[in-house]
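To the team - LQZAQKY5 complex, inputs and output below.
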Amino acid sequence: MSKSRKFYLEDIPLDEAWRRFITAMESSGAWARVPGEELPLEKALGRVTAAPVWAALSSPGYHASAMDGYAVRSADTLGATETAPKRLRIGPERQAEYVDTGDPIPSWADAVIQIEHTQNVDEGAAGKFIEILASVAPWTAVRPMGEDMVATELVLPANHLLKPVDLGALSGCGHATVSVRRRPRVAVIPTGTELVTVEQAAQSGLKSGDIIEYNSLVLASQVRQWGGEPTRYPIVVDDYERIRDKVREAAATHDLILVNAGSSAGSEDFTASIVEELGTLLVHGVAIRPGHPVVLGTVTDRRTPIIGVPGYPVSCALTGEIFVEPLISHWLGLPQREKPGLKAVISRKLLSPMGEDEWVRVTVGRVGKRTVAAPLSRGAGVITSLVRADGIVRIPRFSEGVEAGQEVTVELYRDPADIDRTIVHIGSHDLCLDILAQYLADDGLLFSSANAGSLGGLTALRRGDSHLAGSHLLDPSTGEYNIAYVRQYLPSTPVVVMTFMHREQGLIVAPGNPKGIRGLADLARDDVRFVNRQRGAGTRVLLDYHLNRLGMKHEEVKGYRREEYTHLAVAVAVQSGAADCGLGIAAAAHALELDFIPFEKERYDLVIPRIHYESPLLKPLFDLIHGPVLRKAISDLPGYDITAMGNIVIEL
Ligand SMILES: Nc1nc2c(c(=O)[nH]1)N[C@H]1C(S)=C(S)[C@@H](COP(=O)(O)OP(=O)(O)OC[C@H]3O[C@@H](n4cnc5c(N)ncnc54)[C@H](O)[C@@H]3O)O[C@H]1N2
Ligand code: MOO
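Output:
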């Protein structure tokens, strides 16, 4: 049976989508909390109580001594002072009886005097005594029966997430087991003919079109983290019947089904049709981004809730956060977890479509008095944008976006204290910054680096968005690096310009240099296709400088207008054959095993406003630059020269 494509995707607001889903679950009974199961305490950590727990026994179960010392009748001690000590006869049923901490006190006693406040006196045949210099009040140093918990008292309410100490209390009041909510069972079904397992990929590599399947790992791990029990199904190829049969099978034994990919409108996107055939399709298309093509419904006679999770990894992970986490929390009886919110200013203008709630991943840093959120890639396939994100900014659907410098609320993924330990770099990116970040991490510091190009970095410094900027801007009129640009872009900010390193710039060409390219002059050849960097990139400025010196016009270079944003992207264009050469650093050519024709050693500086240069936050960074370890690591890389590392070029 072949099913027709489903082209039509709705734009249902998130709250309306939820309302439909919840209403359907309420009518089928699936909205109820999951039932309880009795577990030994040792297995109950992190689980949620299904019922209130009342103390079965009191703790302590008797009047217990709180100290090592002598149990006494408080009345017998009355009148004792330093000038008129009192003696109490030692022995069972007498006036003083020795007890250890935790021992029951004798029934005739009502207080304990700790041993260091007593003096032993041996009167031979007359007996043994303690001498005391002060009286004690009743119940001194005694833990009365039930001090901690009295039998029948409430120890834990229902819907309580069990911590280690809770288990101690349950045990202490006589419960060997506890009734906890069964983990909601969630089936995770990855679909897609293009998918291969990571084990296959690690063993045999990838063919063009192969995609490593990992969304099911992310979803299953999320489910586990939130308190559910995932079943991770093997990959199902894009075949309507096979996917449908798996869904039907999963529905019999799970509380929730997540079908991954096949949610949108492509020729092999079956989820919505399958839900329609097996049950009720409630929603196809929610007004959110990423995650727009989400499918919500219920399937089979059991009316098991099902979510068609979009295939793009970021959309997939966020759909987990937006739909699956609240559902599991609800089933477990836990309050909806709110991420800590932090006010920050956004570092650059963000346009966002009207009518859709958008979730933008950001890094966050504290620069002087400003807390700055810098947007990361918005690509739905860029999983590292979530890996690197400090938090997420939600742009509501009634807004068209935010202006640079506008205040936003960041829902933090990390501890707010981490933000104060973050050095924010915006500027030209270089591999050496990643190495620097590794060493800073050893000092407990985080290094957040956004690649905005050299000019973008200076602009960010001017706005106060970052602590420092990596820059390699050649001034065509003097042949000098950076200084003229710093004067122009930061005219009224005291700054220090410090050399980080020199690096080899050159032409990146295919292995063996099949086109026989020797230098920039070859870019004018008809058979040479170039790939350029974006405007504002130091490498582009360098190219223009040299073209100018050679008297070459931009129009002569085929591909001059074709722009990539990183050295590595240029190298990828060459590797894939999309271009014959591009200008970039040796490290990028080396990383992809391409050939490299060096022609300039350029200076890469760090531009640091004086106020940050002198701040304690950046001190470990300068210590590293002046120390031997980082120098060694960088000089081991091809194409770098550290002779001038740490030299102050100029203070402005
Ligand atoms: N004509 C339209 N095309 C698309 C629309 C649309 O509205 N109209 N929406 C786009 C959006 S937004 C999203 S999100 C995706 C969702 O697509 P699907 O859910 O159908 O997923 P696929 O197309 O199969 O995959 C997308 C992408 O993700 C990779 N993928 C899939 N599964 C996995 C996995 N388990 N692990 C890792 N990566 C996975 C897959 O290979 C694709 O590269 O649709 C847009 N298109
Ligand atoms: O809506 Mo899709 O989920 O942006 O990538």
